[in-house]
Amino acid sequence: MLATSFILLGAAALGVNGHYAFPRVGGGSDWQQVRRADNWQSNGFVADVSSAQIRCFQSSPAAASASLNVTAGSTVTYYANQGIFHPGPMSFYLARVPDGQSVSSWNGDGAVWFKVYHEQPNFGSQLTWSSNGKTSFTVPIPSCIKAGYYLLRAEHIALHSASTSGGAQFYISCAQIGITGGGSTDPSNKVAFPGAYKASDPGILININWPIPTSYKNPGPAVFTC
Ligand SMILES: *[C@@H]1O[C@H](CO)[C@@H](O)[C@H](O)[C@H]1NC(C)=O
Ligand SMILES: [Cu+2]
């Protein structure tokens, strides 16, 4: 009994310590257009880059009830439920729902994900990240990609404990969006999740504290631009 209360206290304290989730896009409400991630209550993270959860942080894929429409060439605002607390990069990826499939059942299988944004740190006496303390992120939607439904994957990699393998923390969710307008470009450099990252990638297995890095290599593919 004593042991149980101890564990519960520990879990509550972790939540207060400032982990986070990405539950909302646009003017929607939490988990309305964003597929409910496994950390919707815990604010926890994925540590194993080879697990199925590294895609959308869902252990049993389930769709959101709605999707958010945007025009190609505009932006989507993606929200965290509290300020980003840990040092590390934000990234966003898109994957187009194949023709003939539905945004409310497609699970994002295969080498279908292309990156539309990643964050580089500022270098100095320590690395600083523009995501730090922020609760909202402006995601660019490329102007030349094909109209249709997409999954938009938000990812923050917390690097404070990343000097040991498996120590980086991945905070992830996927929103359902419809893109209108656009062009006919099919981006190159598409990757699969899991598959895109290795635990030994230099942007994942890294000591950000000593020696202070003078460069940072974001994991995954280059950012796609039109
Ligand atoms: C939303 O986007 C999808 C995908 O492009 C499109 O089929 C649908 O017509 C759009 N809905 C509205 C209301 O614009
Ligand atoms: Cu944390």
Automatic annotation (TrEMBL):
Q: What is its EC number?
A: 1.14.99.56
Q: Cofactor(s) for this protein?
A: Cu(2+)
Q: Which GO terms describe its molecular function?
A: hydrolase activity; metal ion binding; monooxygenase activity
Q: What is its main location?
A: secreted
Q: Where in the cell is it found?
A: Secreted
Q: Which reaction does it catalyse?
A: [(1->4)-beta-D-glucosyl]n+m + reduced acceptor + O2 = 4-dehydro-beta-D-glucosyl-[(1->4)-beta-D-glucosyl]n-1 + [(1->4)-beta-D-glucosyl]m + acceptor + H2O
Specify whether Cytoplasm is a keyword of the entry: no
Q: Which InterPro entries match?
A: AA9, AA9_LPMO
Residues in the signal sequence: 1-18
Auxiliary Activity family 9 catalytic domain span? 25-216
Gene3D superfamilies reported for this sequence: 2.70.50.70
Gene Ontology cellular component annotations, sorted alphabetically: extracellular region
Instruction: Please give the Pfam families that the UniProt record associates with this protein.
Output: AA9
Enzyme type, top EC level? oxidoreductase
Gene Ontology biological-process entries = cellulose catabolic process
Which keywords are on file for this protein? Carbohydrate metabolism, Cellulose degradation, Copper, Disulfide bond, Hydrolase, Metal-binding, Monooxygenase, Oxidoreductase, Polysaccharide degradation, Secreted, Signal
Source domain of life is: Eukaryota
Family note? Belongs to the polysaccharide monooxygenase AA9 family.
Question: Which PANTHER family would you find in this protein's record?
Answer: ENDOGLUCANASE II, PUTATIVE (AFU_ORTHOLOGUE AFUA_1G12560)-RELATED
Q: Name it.
A: lytic cellulose monooxygenase (C4-dehydrogenating)
**What's the source species for this entry?**
Staphylotrichum tortipilum
